[in-house]
Design goal:
116 residues, mainly beta, Barwin-like endoglucanases, eight-stranded mixed beta sheet, 2 helices
C-alpha cells in the first residue's frame, strides 16, 4: 500500500508579489526550492495564514536569493502581498517506508524569505 505524506515544507514565508495576469502558479526563490526539495512543475498546497485559504498550484523557479514568493494567475486572488503562507509538497511512499521518512522542512527568515 502507498500513502501520501509531506515531502517538503517551506514554513511561513511572506508573499512578495501577486500577478493576476500571469499564467497560474507560484514562483519560489530557487534557493528555497533546493533547500525544501521542491522542483519546477511540482504540485504544491499553499496555506495562507492570514485568511485561511488553502489551494493547489505548481512551482515555477524564481531568482536565487531573491526571496521571491509570487502567486500567479487565479491564485493571486487568494493572497495579498505581505500575507504569510506555508508551501507544502507531498509524495507517495510505501506504507513501511513512510514510517521512517523524514521530510525537508525549511524555516526561512520571515522578513526576508531567505535562509539565515
Amino acid at each position: 500500500m502507498f500513502i501520501q505524506v509531506v515531502k517538503s515544507k517551506i514554513h511561513r514565508v511572506k508573499v512578495t508579489q501577486a500577478d493576476l495576469n500571469y499564467i497560474g502558479s507560484i514562483t519560489i526563490d530557487e534557493e528555497l526550492m533546493n533547500a525544501s526539495n521542491l522542483i519546477e512543475g511540482e504540485k504544491v498546497h499553499i496555506v495562507n495564514i492570514n485568511n485561511g485559504e488553502r489551494f493547489e498550484t505548481y512551482v515555477i523557479k524564481g531568482e536565487r536569493k531573491s526571496g521571491t514568493i509570487c502567486l500567479n494567475g487565479p491564485a493571486a486572488r487568494k493572497v495579498a502581498v505581505g500575507d504569510i503562507v506555508i508551501i507544502i509538497g507531498y509524495g507517495y511512499l510505501d506504507f513501511e517506508e513512510a514510517k521512517s521518512f523524514k521530510p525537508c522542512l525549511v524555516f526561512p527568515n520571515e522578513e526576508t524569505n531567505l535562509l539565515d
